[in-house]
From TrEMBL:
Coiled coil: none annotated. It comes from Mesorhizobium onobrychidis. This is Propionyl-CoA synthetase. The lineage of its organism: Bacteria, Pseudomonadati, Pseudomonadota, Alphaproteobacteria, Hyphomicrobiales. InterPro entries: ACAS_N, AMP-bd_C, AMP-bd_C_sf, AMP-binding_CS, AMP-dep_synth/lig_dom, ANL_N_sf. Belongs to the ATP-dependent AMP-binding enzyme family. Residues 64-452 form the AMP-dependent synthetase/ligase domain.
Amino acid sequence: MASRYHEVYDGWKRDPEKFWADAAKAIDWFSPFDTVFDPNAGVYGHWFGGASCNTCFNAVDRHVAGGRADQTALIHDSAISGTIRKFTYAELKREVIALTSVLKNRGVQKGDRVIIYMPMVPEAAFAMLACARIGAVHSVVFGGFASHELATRIDDARPKLIISASCGLEPGRVVAYKPLLDTAIEMSRHKPEACLILQRDQLRCELRENHDIDYADAVARERAAGANVDCVPVLATDPLYIIYTSGTTGQPKGIVRDNGGHMVALKWSMENEFGVKPGEVFWAASDVGWVVGHSYIVYGPLLHGCTTVLFEGKPVGTPDAGTYWRVIAEHGVVALFTAPTAFRAIKGQDPKGEFVPKYDLSKFRTLFLAGERADPETIKWAEQKLNVPVIDHWWQTETGSPMTINPAGLGLLPVKYGSPGVPMPGYDIRVLDDAGHEIPRGTLGNVVVKLPLPAGCLPTLWNADDRFRQAYLDEFPGFYKTADAGMMDEDGYLFVMARTDDIINVAGHRLSTGAMEEVLAAHPDVAECAVIGIADAMKGQVPLGFVVLNAGVARDSGAIEAEVVTLVRERIGPVAAFKTVVTIKRLPKTRSGKILRGTMQKIADKEGWTMPATIDDPAILDEITAALKGRGIGL
């Protein structure tokens, strides 16, 4: 079908308030809004001022009342424990109400904070919805985060209660959560009143008397007593949650999400951007601890009346590189949203895609990739093996939903490899030079968004309006700074090349490490890669490449490295001064799959560095250090 994108985007530009007022009709409000947008409220304005609503009501209760009571709402597929649990909308409502009653009996009320420190279990979603039901503000902290990181979040959010579990499951190991939680509470100045602990059979834990509550017992008691808790009306502008993202100062930034704008933006995105209809099965293979898990495992699909998949496993190793295809086939998934890292891992283990034809993927329509740059080679591999559109898109924890995408629901536009698509309604994206002037199309610069930010974006940081202004608004007055570097082409497609700190300056030439990574990834033997800039006395900086080879590659790594260097010289030119590639077994990554380029650069430049709190496996940094020393780098 012909795409309606330009018509819809132009309609938003002509009359932003009408666009968002129309989108808001898809949400049930307890009382209507006085203003669609009030530019005089908050730091840069507020959406849907005066309205009252409830996110849990829109995600659960209205579907039970509206004919979806017996439809599956949530599928928990644990590839690690080999179990599958399903909950209809009616069952979801019962679970959420029982847990809400537990919270209420512990004195949790509207405006109180609750930290959720959970593995990938359905109870994590129940906890989010239970907080939303009574207007408590949840802050999900990625399960297994180190005690220090959890403690900083406890001190910033000051929760009345913490909901956690005895353990999380990783391939080949069980992660004990309770000791991490207890240590974090010891370290923190703020002390929560109690902890609600889900005991998992894989590793149970000791509960502290008069402080720790057994989750299953407490919920079962409320269920047996026939507890009923109605949804509490909150203002559209009241906070739904806080999600912490790392700050440059070491103090994490508490990104606030409001109730009204968040619901309107997510509900609109499910059909128009992701092309998914109510009743269909949507799977975001992320973690509830990250923004993707908030937006597209829990809230987006449930607001839209979909069935959502909550997956506990990895793309490879649980048990093999066919796991994703098994989940899609078994549950009838129509759209998958995951990180490019996951696909690079699958491609590295199964370069020929031999697992794909073993599964019935007939219902599967679209693959969405986001979270980092999707290199064209990975996209082409996925297109070829899956025979469906592969849609790269771009957004941030701060925005809560895509800023740019190729909108499947409005009709796909031509794909441009390397571009995460075109701006969505609400986003007037510009590219500026460092002095704040707009630069010509096709020129690399700072990607910014003209204020105001649309519905669904952060209104501010938790208790830190000044920090919000300083971090996002001060550098380019009138614009939100994304801290990404990129360019816009003649057709309005954005190309996000790197974080602004991943632009390297080689002898006065500003070069994108992302563009070099695209070239490395194009080599047939390369599974994954990263490029960083390291200090050079002559040129200021020079690029250094790292490659992980595909499983089964038996060729000499030196020969492959030489071919990769030649490729970069051919495609980017001698100006890149690209001369060194190091073959390694694996790249250091965060648990959400982002490559820790900054830490690698510090090792190579012999700078002081601290172990990143989000690292998946600290031992990888020792491997990197040894590999660099073997090449005379970082000595």
